[in-house]
Amino acid sequence: MTDRIILVLLSEAGGVGKTTIAVNVAYEWSLRGRSVAIIDLDSNHSLDGFVGLKAEQERQKTSARIFDRDFDGSWPLKSVFNSELISVCQGSRALKDVTESLVSRKRREYVLDKVLKTYPLPHELIILDCRAGFDLMSENALTASTDILIPIDMGVKVRTVSSLVNSIWQETEDLELAPAPRIMGLIPNHYNKGASFHEEFIAALTKISQQLDLKLYPALRSWQYLNNSSILGEPLKMIRSGDPINAIFANLVDDLEKIRENKFNG
Ligand SMILES: Nc1ncnc2c1ncn2[C@@H]1O[C@H](COP(=O)(O)OP(=O)(O)O)[C@@H](O)[C@H]1O
Ligand SMILES: [Mg+2]
User: Fold this and answer.
1) DSSP per-residue string spanning 196-216
2) What sign does the CA torsion over 256, 141, 112, 87 have?
3) Domain edges within the chain
4) Model pTM?
5) Taking CA atoms, which of 160, 168, 251, 255 is between 20 and 30 Å from 7?
6) Closest Cα to atom 17, ligand 1: which residue?
7) Are 63 and 90 in contact (CB under 8 A)?
8) How many CB atoms lie within 10 A of CB 213?
9) CA distance 128 to 19
10) What average pLDDT does the segment 211-238 reach?
11) Distance between CA atoms of 250 and 246, rounded to whole angstroms?
12) What's the fold here for domain 5-264?
């Protein structure tokens, strides 16, 4: 089993906080002295703004490059947040064409997995940030992953949560992933304390996560500073080190460290 964690954020809809969580978890991880790479697999390249980078115009310098048949392992990475420990591989529009071209490729769901195995990144954590829903790109991310985190929007019907989880399990079975990636948990986002609908939603989600035997993380509140930080292109902890929301990201990183320990110790 690999000693690195390849975490994929999967969600049913967009705007659920995948990129927000990816960036803040990566930053917290780096503060603990560990290296991390975020690979943007979303053709909307929303990660760029979150990490203070301009959209990369040169396709060769984006994640589209790693799907080329002649990719030679020269990963197009840039370090961000003035830290040598955090690198990102930017996304681009070209990922749309890549996803389309994958259709005619043999073992099309395993392309990213193969690249990551042939040309392994040195980072202790790799975060795959993809689009919502199941297209060939997110299937590639799922196939390459060791662990899965599922952000959940407060607006969805609770039953869509179990159907998403079940389709992930079904996919891992159909793709014969062995070892299958594990779902580390569900994390609700855009929560408003006091909104009765939200309280009911969390109660229903608690029940469902118990039935599915999945960890339910404390909900991320709708939090203006979180939005501000993404606009500023800096993690929340960088702009507000004392913000209580940071504890939720720290909690996720605690669990990632435990996962890492377990991988090392067999
Ligand atoms: N808890 C939150 N409170 C306030 N704004 C948030 C929160 N979570 C995410 N956002 C904002 O919502 C937008 C969508 O989030 P994002 O992480 O890009 O979602 P996704 O990657 O799933 O599409 C971003 O502008 C982000 O700053
Ligand atoms: Mg995103």
Assistant:
1) HHHHHHHHHHHHHHHHHT--B
2) negative
3) 5-264
4) 0.97
5) 160
6) 17
7) yes
8) 7
9) 9
10) 97
11) 6
12) Rossmann fold (3.40.50)
Whether the predicted pLDDT of 177 surpasses 60: yes
For residue 13, which atom of ligand 1 is closest to its CA?
A: 22
Give tens-digit pLDDT for 1-44: 467 999 999 998 889 999 999 999 999 999 999 999 999 999 99
Indicate if the alpha-carbon torsion angle 80, 86, 87, 88 is positive or negative: negative
Element holding 12 (H helix, E strand): none
Residue for token digits 């930053």?
A: 27
Ligand in nearest proximity to the CA of 24: 1
**Tokens 């392994």 sit on residue:** 120
Nearest alpha carbon, ligand 1 atom 2: 222
Name the percent of the chain lying above pLDDT 90.
89
15: left (phi over 0), alpha (psi -120 to 50) or beta: left
Sequence-ordered list of residues with C-beta below 8 angstroms from that of 266, at least 6 positions apart, any chain: 1
Ligand 2 (ion): residues with CB under 5 Å are 18-19, 46
Specify whether the backbone of 133 is left (phi greater than 0), alpha (psi in -120 to 50) or beta. Answer: left
Strand 86-89 relative to strand 36-40: parallel, antiparallel, unpaired?
parallel
Using DSSP's 3-state secondary structure scheme, residue 15 falls into coil
CA distances from 208 to 4, 16, 163, 192, 194 (A): 30, 19, 11, 20, 21
Cβ atoms of 39 and 167 within 8 Å: the answer is no
DSSP classification of residue 64: G
Residue with tokens 């500023």: 232
Does residue 47 line the site of ligand 1, with CB under 6 A?
Answer: no
